[in-house]
Write a sequence for this structure.
């Protein structure tokens, strides 16, 4: 990858990667660090990575950095688990679909949330998500479907019905 | 896999995620046509799609961009500036050293009025000017003859690469072939072949590696340690008379001997001081010859 190609990647993917990390961590400072680190690693390996594969590489690096970060912060929960309690944030009455979805997203496990974000924000296929997260497509499908069902259940709760 | 009431959610989610191929999608549509009560769930799953927040952006992209050419230029500029700074420092150091030497020389000249007349312009210049080239030392050669026999003394000019700290005499003893055999030079044009006084068996002139005045002016309040011999036995014994020595490597005694001749070497540049020493040796030979 050329210098220009790398700069194109910054232009095209920095925001998406930042959103993905930020939504998972809900911490802008940590998300910035991980994005910066991801691009640093991409730069070091630019000789091996072509521009058209840079995005997937960035998300892979960013995802694993994020997982490492989460592991340092707390033991990561197993995929598929659903947390009944919120993550300690003050619950506010959702008044819009987006807010409800954010709430539902916040109730997913780290793994589930990552899969949902990769799918919805970046439009990756199950197979591509599997490559990024080191899961096989079947696992991605199972975890993602569980996440969707949890989100749907949250959505249809009486107090959350729009 | 056939769609049914038990697995329809999986199909709905896969459809919402865009993971069904056209055949599968058609099959799902047929199922929903047959079971319209599940259509609402499809809408629900489709509404679960998260939409990226466009306001959430990475603010400091400039810190991520790379510009190798600019970086190289900056590095290059940085290197040039560093080199320039070092050069300026060295120049300043050289000028300071020159000024110090000049000051010391003035001080010495004031303390030794007997030699002041030799350098009337001392107050203006740190040293008398005399051009020179090459690092050449005149070292002793085994005396071939003296006046009694009528033969002439030959003064060999020996190019001594003495940067490793070898005293000329020591160097000659250790590596006589190198000292005399292979690299012997012809006497400089200014030197005459002079009959050797009978009381002398050798004339030794060393190379002034360090040409600063303080190392050749003993008893002047300057650093005497620099005048101490460094494990080298100088040929001041017997009837060998030393006219000059290696400043900083010879003995104060030998330098004093040179001073007694009314000469002293005040070159800051050792290459220039070489000519002074050669001249001293030459003049002294003539004087001694006349006295005889």
């Amino acid at each position: 990858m050329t210098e220009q190609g790398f700069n194109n990647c910054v232009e095209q993917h920095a925001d998406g990667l930042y959103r993905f990390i930020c939504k998972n961590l809900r911490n802008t400072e940590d998300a910035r660090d991980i994005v910066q680190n991801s691009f640093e690693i991409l730069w070091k390996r630019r000789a091996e990575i072509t521009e058209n594969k840079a995005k997937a590489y960035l998300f892979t690096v960013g995802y694993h950095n994020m997982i490492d970060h989460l592991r340092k912060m707390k033991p990561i929960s197993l995929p598929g688990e659903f947390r009944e309690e919120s993550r300690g944030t003050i619950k506010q009455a959702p008044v819009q679909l987006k807010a409800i979805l954010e709430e539902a997203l916040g109730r997913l496990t780290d793994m589930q949330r990552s899969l949902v974000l990769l799918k919805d924000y970046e439009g990756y296929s199950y197979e591509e998500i599997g490559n990024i997260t080191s899961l096989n497509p079947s696992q991605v499908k199972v975890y993602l479907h569980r996440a969707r069902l949890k989100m749907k259940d949250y959505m249809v709760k009486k107090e959350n019905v729009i | 896999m056939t769609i049914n009431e038990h697995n329809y959610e999986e199909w709905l989610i896969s459809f919402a995620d865009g993971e069904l191929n056209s055949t599968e999608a058609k099959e799902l549509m047929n199922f929903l046509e047959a079971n319209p009560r599940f259509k609402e769930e499809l809408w629900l799953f489709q509404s679960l799609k998260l939409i990226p927040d466009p306001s959430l952006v990475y603010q400091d992209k400039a810190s991520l961009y790379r510009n190798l050419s600019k970086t190289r230029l900056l590095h290059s500029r940085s290197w040039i500036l560093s080199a320039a700074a070092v050069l300026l420092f060295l120049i300043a150091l050289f000028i300071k050293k020159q000024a110090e030497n000049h000051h010391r020389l003035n001080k010495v000249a004031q303390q030794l009025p007997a030699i002041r007349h030799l350098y009337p312009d001392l107050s203006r210049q740190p040293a008398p000017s005399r051009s020179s080239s090459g690092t050449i030392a005149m070292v002793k050669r085994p005396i071939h003859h003296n006046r009694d026999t009528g033969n002439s003394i030959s003064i060999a000019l020996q190019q001594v690469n003495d940067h490793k700290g070898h005293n000329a005499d020591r160097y000659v003893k250790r590596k006589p072939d190198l000292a005399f055999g292979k690299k012997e030079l012809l006497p400089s044009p200014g030197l005459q072949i002079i009959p050797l006084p009978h009381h002398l068996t050798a004339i030794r002139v060393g190379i002034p590696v360090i040409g600063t005045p303080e190392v050749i002016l003993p008893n002047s309040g300057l650093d005497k340690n620099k005048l101490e011999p460094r494990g080298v036995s100088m040929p001041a014994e017997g009837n060998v008379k030393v006219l000059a020595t290696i400043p900083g490597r010879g003995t104060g005694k030998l330098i004093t001997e040179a001073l007694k001749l009314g000469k002293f070497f005040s070159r800051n540049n050792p290459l220039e001081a070489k000519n002074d020493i050669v001249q001293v040796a030459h003049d002294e030979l003539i004087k001694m010859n006349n006295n005889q």
